[in-house]
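Hi all, posting the design record for the shared folder.

TITLE: backbone redesign
STEP: 1 of 1
STRUCTURE INPUT:
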């Protein structure tokens, strides 16, 4: 069955996607490619067929030189962020002011949000995208539209590996686009190839404790979170759903922590780490923290670049023979004659 993703994409620049493991055959359009803001020529797209290698793939887009050189923000551990702002109107205005600064500094570089389930990537991503006037894309939503079924169905019927393949295809397709905010799946950081796609933009990790993330995930429900709803016998003596969720969350986070730590920025979700009932800061506060951290980082980068231009080379002692400028043959002959 063909599915036209008009809801997420445009009607033009269509491509075909086929996956042998997922029982779907879908027709999709390349997101935003027809928009004049992203002048990205598309290659002819055909499904890859035949043999045992009949796998789904979204062909690589042709990248312009400026997109290959997209500037990223160096990794930074963000600490000492401003206190939460209680007045929503003041917070909104501060976000708009920060977004205006960051938008000019980013020069069209995209933003990828990573983090565990329950970290609020989609909600925060929409707020950040709105402030920056960037389009927002959710990779999980795109996968469901491409597959024509829910993520839970893909996990149940085809397994996690099939889902991860679709996830990589979506990230590969989104890689060339500038000035977008992308919310990724919780496990997108595990596959090394996905980092090759996301590092064309700024990668931001929304980080929280397993307890906080579990409270948030359970509040929203686990039906759409296959990795949390499947216990796998890890906590057979769990007293309640929360205890089981925390144990599962800790295991997943320990497996992924090294990958999450590769992000350019880390944004904390907590409001009061000492509060056992804390469900984290409001999405608008987290979005503000993200923009503030990014603005500060970009300013520091600019200062460091300027400082690096102001240097002076001073000679101390004799240069090693390998660094000395040797006289030309004519100069050597002249020196020998004068001696």
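Okay, here is what came back for every position:
SEQUENCE:
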């Amino acid at each position: 069955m063909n599915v036209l993703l008009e809801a997420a994409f445009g009607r033009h620049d269509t491509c075909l996607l086929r996956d042998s493991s997922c029982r779907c055959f879908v027709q999709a359009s390349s997101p935003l490619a027809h928009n004049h803001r992203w002048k990205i020529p598309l290659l002819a797209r055909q499904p890859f067929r035949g043999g045992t290698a009949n796998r789904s793939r979204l062909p690589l887009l042709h990248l312009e030189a400026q997109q290959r050189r997209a500037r990223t923000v160096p990794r930074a551990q963000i600490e000492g962020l401003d206190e939460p702002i209680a007045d929503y109107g003041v917070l909104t205005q501060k976000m708009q002011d920060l977004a205006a600064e960051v938008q000019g500094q980013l020069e069209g570089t995209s933003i990828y949000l990573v983090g565990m389930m329950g970290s609020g990537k989609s909600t925060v991503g929409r707020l950040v995208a709105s402030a920056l006037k960037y389009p927002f894309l959710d990779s999980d939503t795109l996968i469901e539209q491409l597959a024509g079924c829910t993520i839970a169905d893909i996990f149940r019927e085809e397994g996690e590996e099939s889902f991860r393949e679709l996830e990589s295809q979506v990230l590969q397709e989104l890689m060339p686009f500038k000035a977008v905010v992308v919310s990724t799946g919780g496990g997108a950081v595990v596959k090394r190839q996905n980092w090759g796609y996301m590092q064309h933009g700024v990668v931001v990790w929304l980080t929280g404790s397993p307890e906080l993330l579990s409270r948030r995930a359970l509040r929203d429900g686990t039906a759409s979170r296959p990795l949390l709803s499947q216990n796998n016998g890890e906590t057979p003596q769990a007293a309640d759903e929360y205890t089981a969720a925390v144990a599962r969350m800790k295991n997943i986070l320990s497996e992924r922590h090294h990958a999450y730590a590769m992000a350019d920025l880390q944004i904390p979700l907590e409001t009061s780490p000492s509060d056992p009932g804390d469900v984290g800061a409001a999405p608008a506060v987290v979005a503000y923290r993200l923009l503030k951290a990014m603005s500060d980082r970009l300013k520091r980068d600019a200062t460091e670049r300027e400082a690096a231009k102001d240097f002076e080379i001073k000679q101390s002692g004799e240069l090693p023979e390998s660094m000395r400028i040797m006289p030309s043959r004519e100069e050597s002959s002249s020196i020998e004659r004068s001696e």
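COMMENT: Residues 63-135+179-306 form a domain with the Rossmann fold fold (CATH 3.40.50.300).
Let me know if anyone wants the other runs.
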